[in-house]
Amino acid sequence: MTEESSLRKMAAQVVAPTTAPSPGIGGSGVVLDPFILVIFGASGDLTAKKLMPALYHLYLQEGMPKDFIILGCARTPMSRESFLFQMHEAVRNHGPADLSRWTDFAARLYYFGLHYDDLQAFQDLSSFLQDLDQRHRMQGNRIFYLAVPAPLVPVIAENLNGSGLSQESEDGKGWTRLLVEKPFGRDLETARELNRILLRGFRENQIFRLDHYLAKETVQNILMFRFANAIFEPIWNRQYIEAITITAAETIGIEKRAGYYEQAGILRDMFQNHLMQLLALTALDPPALFKDTQVQDEKTKVFRSLKPFPVDDWPESLVLGQYGPGTIGGQTVNGYRDEPGVDPHSLTPTFAAMRLFLDNWRWQGVPFTLTSGKRLAEKKTEIVVHFKSIPHSMFREVIRETIPANRLTLGIQPEEIVTLEFQAKKPGPTADLQSVTMVFDYRQGKGAPLDAYEKVLLACLQGDHLLFWRQDSLELCWAFLTPILNACETCTFLAEKLYFYPAGSPGPAEAQGRLHP
Ligand code: BG6
Questions:
Q1: Among the options 57, 88, 212, 274, which is catalytic?
Q2: Percent above pLDDT 90 for the chain
Q3: Is 136 a catalytic residue?
């Protein structure tokens, strides 16, 4: 494969489907191996809303190899017909409108009911897979996708190991990969323990730890923007940058996930994964190649530079909040404590704004403010680079106000834009300035070629780890966050310092003034 990521090549090919189905994707040189995808949690929400629609859409776009099988596994006893019916409904509700090739696609779907703690059932699964392999010539290639709640991951991994399913075939022909959803532990120790369990059966390069933010187009664009242009890198450092803010604001609440969210809170749900990845992509040094190992090495260096958080003096660096009742989009919504399944006295934070620093040459002294919250006024994920003010104003005698500094915004979602704010002369006879904005619209009216789950599945099929977490990075981030989580969870501080904000607002006022530039 050349320097160009194989995933990029493939994405490009997929948007321009060939008229006749051809081997791999469009017969373009990147030919995908045949495979069996085993989805644990096949009767759950993730499979219905994301995975099956993504798989069918890929199939429609000629993005699947000629030979593949999808085997749904779950605890619910179900016939193949019932499974097919459920998946058809799932794709009808959440997938592409074109169902004309559903019957062909569905011919590759199977179902296998099992209890996750039953080793014998995994041995039976192994025989079932061997049988499918032989009948459909899958060459022993398998992906196990764990679309299950976190507590079930260890037992499934143990039984995949115990039944020999985690092993790759001895003749080196078939590969076996494991796709794991977050959360990867709930602190440093549990993350390490989970990893120990996974490594009993799988090698690190067989494990794909998923973070769907990495597969977002505009997140992938960060590296292209930074390193395919010569003009940004020379000023991308402490000499020219005053501060960086990274925001992932959501209007939705916790939906029906009280059980998970009460245990997680915003720091585990959004900071330990998505926001840390955005931070790394913004701050990393140029990787030598656009390849998984090189990019991950540079990210790891960023995480290794995280300055230990001042836990004893956290009000200066962290504001935590929880949403109360309010109005969003004209609709009255519950406060967090009134959500079904939530403790009415819960202290779980649904908002956090955190200022952190990187202890390295490039970023010394530059504050990075990371903010995320549920039930905020608008859905917006963006990275804003606040440049330093001009060192001296030659206009000081004609223009009294201070001249605003330049600002570069990488809009991740829903607005996929890059904007640069700068100053220009106001048209007219007087010497006045105005702030103006240059806007690049990422899509330019075109729809998304592939969604995040489709890209993640393709990357895993190719064995490309670019869109996934590596364990060393994960542990460095947990090492940074765990003392903060411990402080939150073991002292009475939170009871006094959890700021409540009305749903539909920008979050606690304390975060606005204190942490934002
Ligand atoms: C998930 C979190 O990982 O990301 C959710 O568990 C959150 O709580 C979601 O809503 C946000 O993803 P996106 O793509 O909508 O920004």
A1: 274
A2: 79
A3: no
Instruction: Compute the distance from residue 442 Cα to the ligand 1 centre, in Å.
Output: 21
Indicate the angle between helix axes 153-162 and 188-201, nearest 10 degrees.
20
DSSP 215: G
* Alpha-carbon distances, residue 49 vs 39, 46, 114, 269 (angstroms): 14, 5, 22, 19
Superfamily name with CATH number, domain 3-211: NAD(P)-binding Rossmann-like Domain (3.40.50.720)
Is the model's pTM score more than 0.85?
yes
Please give the full DSSP string across 325-373, using - where no structure is assigned.
SEEETTEEE--GGGSTTS-TT----SEEEEEE-B-STTTTT--EEEEEE
* Token digits of residue 110: 């199977």
Q: 291-298: list long-range contacts, CB under 8 Å, 24+ apart.
A: 291/3, 291/5, 291/466, 292/464, 292/465, 292/466, 292/468, 293/465, 295/223, 295/466, 296/465, 296/466, 296/470, 296/473
Q: Which atom of ligand 1 is nearest to the CA of 254?
A: 8
Q: Which residues contact 435 (CB under 8 A, 6 or more apart)?
A: 404, 421, 422, 423
d(Cα 315, Cα 485) in Å, to the nearest integer?
Answer: 14
Can you tell me the distance from the alpha carbon of 39 to that of 381, in angstroms, rounded to the nearest whole number? 30
CB count in 10 Å sphere of residue 453: 21
Question: Ligand 1: which residue has its CA nearest to atom 4?
Answer: 270
Report helix angle 153-162 to 119-136, nearest 10.
70
Which class is domain 216-447+468-514?
alpha beta
**Domains of the chain, residue spans:** 3-211, 216-447+468-514
Read off the pLDDT of each residue in 392-403 and give the average, rounded to a whole number.
Answer: 85
pLDDT digits (tens, 9 = 90+) for 93-146: 999 999 999 999 999 999 999 999 999 999 999 999 999 998 888 888 999 999
